Amino acid sequence: MNNPKDIKPLMQAINDYLKKNNLLLPSNAEIVGGIDFFEVYVENVPVLFIGDRPPTVIFEIHETEYTDRYLRPQVSIAV
């Protein structure tokens, strides 16, 4: 299988989702593909699940319980 990061529509869908939800994908993120899905891992922890619904490619992106922890930019709060 080709590197999922080389699939332009997939990466566009991920980037659009990240931008819309104020998330950042770290450089060490790995994208693993299956038959009809992709999973995004950071430090071997699943942070996004992406379903691919044939016959047309519609990437449905779902967060996991770890999404905020690994993808949300840390904001310092001054008191």
Notes on the structure:
- This protein has 79 residues and is of the alpha+beta class.
- The protein has helices at residues 8-20, 67-71; strands at 30-33, 37-42, 45-52, 59-63.
Quick recap:
By secondary structure, this protein is α+β, with helices and mostly antiparallel strands. Helix content is 23%, strand content 29%. It has one domain (4-64).
Based on helices, strands and strand pairing, what is the structural class? alpha+beta
Major pleated sheet: 4 strands, antiparallel
The percent range for helix content is 10-25%
Oligomeric category: single chain
Number of helices: 2
Radius of gyration: 13 Å
Large-scale geometry: globular
Fill in the keyword field for this structure:
2 helices; globular; single chain; alpha+beta; 4-stranded antiparallel sheet; 79 residues
Secondary-structure topology with pairs:
Elements: H1 8-20, E1 30-33, E2 37-42, E3 45-52, E4 59-63, H2 67-71
Antiparallel strand pairs: 1-2, 2-3, 3-4
